[in-house]
Design goal:
335 residues, mainly alpha, 3% strand
């Protein structure tokens, strides 16, 4: 039997990631080129906003919850993860060739392709943890936390080479995954309190960035690779999610709300894979109208943020329209 509260958490996670990417991604049109920047680079005081939209830990928490009770064969679950990728690869192969053939700046083409493909690091990590479920089912999350802490000490105290930080890609996201595998053993209030306090100490006294997403040009990122601050923040987020689980189950008794959550869950991977393409499409289609605030301009003030918020519904519409178009094409091919 499905746990509708868990499905609601997954929907919140995908909404947070998509809206977060749409808000922190600025494509600036300048002299025939497009460069990628972020409002967090120009408006660092907005860093706390990243705490609302960095919901990646929720994905792994829910992944652990589902893996602990799933009877679906592993092969089927992994196929669901990668199913949208061939279409994305085909579309962007054509886009890149066409843009270069039309004389587009190679740097612009590379920036757009990176924007679309960079978020997909999530898929192999999530797949690996899902496959490793039998091995880590009884692992206490304190052990991967210790690994992340040791790696950070090696990097920031003893000057270890930067590549060692990438060990944390597996260890950091194993933490919320392990919490999800045995979530009934954990007190949501304690996780929230401990994670929030630890994150606050690491940011204010430990020198970690306040932003929980990467900022172009920053000397240190909490995400690339993940840091101890990202892990403690994820634990706080996991605690909040566990506290919300009961109320969400109650809300999911409302047919309208459950219908929205069910639709998001059915299309979760497609939404994740295609959401940055929707942003690029909207940005490109209206570019001939001239540089527009919140879409093609430098994100240097709160006016840009207000304008970007107004563009979000159009990004969402493009994402939905693209999904329907792909479905129609697939049906046509199937015939």
């Amino acid at each position: 039997m499905r746990d509708r509260g868990i499905d609601a958490l997954r929907a919140l996670a995908i909404a947070g990631v998509v809206c977060g990417h749409w808000l922190v991604t600025a494509l600036v049109a300048d002299s025939g080129t497009i460069r990628v920047t972020s409002p967090l680079k120009h408006l660092p005081e907005l860093a706390p906003a990243s705490w609302l939209f960095q919901t990646m830990a929720l994905f792994f928490l829910v992944g652990g919850m589902v893996a602990a009770r799933s009877t679906t064969p592993l092969r089927v679950r992994l196929l669901r993860l990668v199913r949208p990728l061939p279409a994305l690869a085909g579309v962007w192969a054509v886009v890149v060739v066409v843009l270069l053939a039309c004389g587009a700046d190679p740097g612009t083409v590379a920036a757009l392709a990176k924007l679309v493909w960079a978020p997909l690091w999530f898929l192999p990590v999530y797949a690996a943890l899902t496959a490793a479920t039998p091995l880590v089912a009884r692992l206490h999350p304190g052990w991967p936390v210790a690994v992340v802490a040791a790696v950070d000490v090696a990097r920031f105290v003893f000057g270890a080479p930067g590549w060692i930080g990438w060990i944390n890609v597996g260890a950091a996201w194993l933490v919320p995954f392990c919490v999800g595998l045995s979530w009934r053993r954990f007190d949501g209030r304690m996780l929230l309190l401990a994670g929030a306090v630890a994150t606050g100490v690491l940011i204010t006294a430990g020198g970690y960035p306040a932003s929980m997403v990467g900022v172009p040009g920053a000397a240190l990122s909490n995400q690339s690779p993940p840091t101890l601050a990202a892990v403690t923040f994820g634990l706080a987020q996991a605690g909040a999610a566990l506290l919300l689980l009961g109320p969400l189950r109650g809300l999911m008794r409302r047919p309208a709300l459950w219908g929205v959550v069910a639709a998001v869950n059915l299309a979760a991977m497609s939404v994740y894979v295609w959401h940055q393409t929707a942003l690029v499409v909207v940005t490109a289609l209206v570019l001939p109208a001239g540089p527009l605030a919140g879409l093609h301009t430098v994100p240097g003030d709160l006016g840009w943020v207000a304008a970007r918020l107004a563009w979000l519904p159009l990004f969402a519409l493009a994402l939905v329209a693209g999904g329907r178009l792909r479905n129609l094409l697939c049906k046509g091919v199937g015939r």
